[in-house]
Amino acid sequence: MSRIGKMPISVPAGVEIKNENNLITVKGPKGQLSRQFSHELGIEVENGTVTVTRPNDDKRLRSLHGLTRTLINNMVEGVTNGYSKTLEIEGVGYRAAKSGNKVTLNLGFSHPVVFEDTDAIKLEVPQPNKIIVSGIDKQAVGQFAAEIREKRPPEPYKGKGIRYEGEHIIRKEGKAGKGKK
């Protein structure tokens, strides 16, 4: 049995979960999320807990069991606390500025790169070299942060670029460090 899939999900106070034909809708203080899950799995919502069961040990159902439980848990966590990713900008002249609902990034290109807040994603710029991406959908927050990072990924020689907070960039030695034979 899946160690993750068999654990029940406890639903905190203020969060409402509905199950209509495996269409799970989670409503909480931060917003509402809904997602359709496989009809082959059993999802029961009762007494403030959610449990996911599978009818047999088919390989496909085993792989869906833990995934379904984790996705529902992420939905509950998202509507109660929300998710956020912090990006750091490293490099001379590289910076971010927020005006209204737009974030303008100067990343050494001939033009500024502009990102806009969406309904699900909010952007904050507490410092010129820091961007905080936040929202209630874990997958959407991660995807949006990855799209920002993609504009100027960190390079291994000087470490310039956009990186996740706490991300370690493996540095390379340049041509001068090679040594003569």
Task: Describe, in plain words, how this protein is organized in 3D.
This protein has 181 residues and is of the alpha+beta class. The protein has two domains: 9-81, Outer Surface Protein A, domain 3; 83-164, Ribosomal protein L6 (Outer Surface Protein A, domain 3), CATH 3.90.930.12. 19% of the residues lie in helices and 38% in strands. The chain contains two helices and 13 strands; from the N terminus they run ββββββαββββββαβ. It has a four-stranded antiparallel β-sheet, with helices on one face. The protein has a three-stranded antiparallel β-sheet with strand order 1-6-5, covered by helices on one side. It is elongated and about 65 Å long.
List the helices and strands and how they pair.
Layout: E1 9-10, E2 16-20, E3 23-28, E4 31-36, E5 42-46, E6 49-53, H1 59-80, E7 83-90, E8 95-99, E9 102-106, E10 113-116, E11 121-127, E12 130-135, H2 138-150, E13 161-164
Antiparallel strand pairs: 1-6, 2-3, 3-4, 5-6, 7-12, 7-13, 8-9, 9-10, 11-12
**What is the element string, with H for helices and E for strands?**
EEEEEEHEEEEEEHE
State the helicity in percent bands: 10-25%
Name given to the CATH homologous superfamily of the largest domain? Ribosomal protein L6
* Total beta strands: 13
Radius of gyration: 21 Å
How many helices? 2
Report strand order across the widest sheet: 11-12-7-13
Contiguous uncertain segments of 5+ residues: none
The CATH topology of the largest domain is given as Outer Surface Protein A, domain 3
Mean pLDDT: 92
Protein name: Large ribosomal subunit protein uL6
GO molecular function: rRNA binding; structural constituent of ribosome
Function: This protein binds to the 23S rRNA, and is important in its secondary structure. It is located near the subunit interface in the base of the L7/L12 stalk, and near the tRNA binding site of the peptidyltransferase center.
Domain Large ribosomal subunit protein uL6 alpha-beta: 11-82, 91-164
